[in-house]
Amino acid sequence: MANGTQLSTRTALRDAMTAEGLSVRQLAKRAGCGKSIIGLLRSGARRSCSPELAAKIAAALDIPIHELFPDEKDGGTD
């Protein structure tokens, strides 16, 4: 994906969601995105998303962005 931000591992998002006790629906609502993209990222069927969405997902999980997306810096994108 051009300009995509890649998850650190196939299970990174699933593990973070489990630790927070969040469902796909709950995380999608918190991050302000569709359930389908969260579901694809969670299952490992998709490994990347936009930097903006990566930042929203990390914020919704209340974790530093680099824990999920190691190529991103804390504080968002340029």
Automatic annotation (TrEMBL):
Residues 13-68 form the HTH cro/C1-type domain. Pfam families: HTH_3 (PF01381). It comes from the Bacteria. This is Helix-turn-helix transcriptional regulator. PROSITE patterns: HTH_CROC1. The lineage of its organism: Bacteria, Bacillati, Actinomycetota, Actinomycetes, Mycobacteriales.
